[in-house]
């Protein structure tokens, strides 16, 4: 069976990765590859860098490690990687701080931490991310800790590495008792990180502050062996199994850190500052690990408002993780969440998620003071669309106008929850943009953190989103009608070109039926040109430009067709649609279509389904909706 085979293969792979040797052998490996002895921070940074870094034309950096899972957070991630991970990897002072991700609910904080954790587990299984620890050490500590302080400067120079930290109490005792001080004989093994195995990756989650023990963090006395060894300061009578021990060499996630009792935080102070912590009756224990916590803005503000927390504050580095502010990226988030949920069997009509995304982004943006700017324009600019009168540089200016933009508003999970409740309630097989907007609107009353004023603002955003959708819906139907009328479009264009040719060459046109010689049909030409705003004064230049294009095509032996000139095609489509408008209006809104109308409706429906991703339900909904819009 395939699954069993896969399991066996996985086991084999892990067995192949396993390595065991002596400290002597390890030293030789480090001599060849000093990066084996890098710090946890440096390993995490290299893991991120190794996944790939892309630079775009504007000099923006994108880290593939995060960007495959997280959408629209490139700016925040860039800052996080540069200011924290990169600096920490270079042993700058930030390494000695706890990393605190601060952002609104469901903004991706936990996702970032999970990516780092799962990433480390994998990276430790690659050559580039390989690491080794003293075999049997409860903290899988760096074997170089075995080297006595006095010899370190010499060894560091020889191997090209830095050695930080001291042997843990357990290893110290074993070195003495088991190996008689012969450090070269101490066994070393490859460390494969795994949160499940509690190796290199851990999570600390405070429970009831009254009952919780610091032991969860730093380990505890082993009451089963204490009588045997007689003393609490014998490492054999101590279990180094706190989360800080277990996450050594890797990463510990600290959940709800700011809600945590102070005594837990004080322990972290020394760990972060000096790289060691106090456990039981032992000398300070060295640890090399990344501590990541997360919080929301309100919680953080009340934390810093408390004077008692000042010392801690200076040991925390806060990285804002705001919501995404790009409509297209928001759609990707929803697509991902829908895929992961039990919604995947429902058909989501084209533009449904897009419309919901417009609403969410509107709730997250802040008004700009820039002249002539409004939220819809800002939304387009943020999404990389062009807006008349604004440039790329304006986007940057807008982004810097409010430092806390994206720290509030509607969260992605809310939208997904509303979609599922809409689905369950109606037992629908298909939801369109309007269904989703309605569901979002109905949910606003129950949303726990929306004030009355905000609700008013949000209702306004719902109607803006709907207007945006109306435009999209009309265009879509127009496209589908024109598509079904492809032949008419071509005929209309040929007709136009014949007339333009005659006009430019001062010749006449021959009527194909009667053979009669006619003047060029000015009315026809103008009716097309007006569709794209070509004025009476500009018409001559436009016609000549087209003629030049035709002869340029002819010289190259290419055929000038419907798709050869974008503006002309647009004009033709619009003209056709204007002519069709009445047809659309009538066909889409009549309750009892005649045979001819029915045929047209069926053709357009088929186009919507075959070409534009609709299902029969939402295709019909769309036609009826656009019909009612056109009749207003
Ligand atoms: N920018 C984003 N790109 C991709 N997915 C996102 C993004 N923001 C949120 N999500 C998704 O939304 C869900 C909630 O995100 P996550 O749990 O990471 O948020 P959080 O910030 O930890 O929230 P909380 O404060 O509630 O703990 C996740 O499934 C996550 O993948
Ligand atoms: Mg979370
Ligand atoms: Zn040890
Ligand atoms: Zn559908």
From TrEMBL:
InterPro entries: P-loop_NTPase, Prk_AAA, PrkA/YeaG, PrkA_C. SMART domains: AAA_PrkA (SM00763). The keyword Kinase applies. Pfam families: AAA_PrkA, PrkA. Residues 21-372 form the PrkA AAA domain. Keywords: Kinase, Transferase. GO terms for molecular function: protein kinase activity. It comes from the Bacteria. PANTHER family: PROTEIN KINASE PRKA, PROTEIN PRKA. This is Putative serine protein kinase PrkA. It comes from Melghirimyces profundicolus. The lineage of its organism: Bacteria, Bacillati, Bacillota, Bacilli, Bacillales.
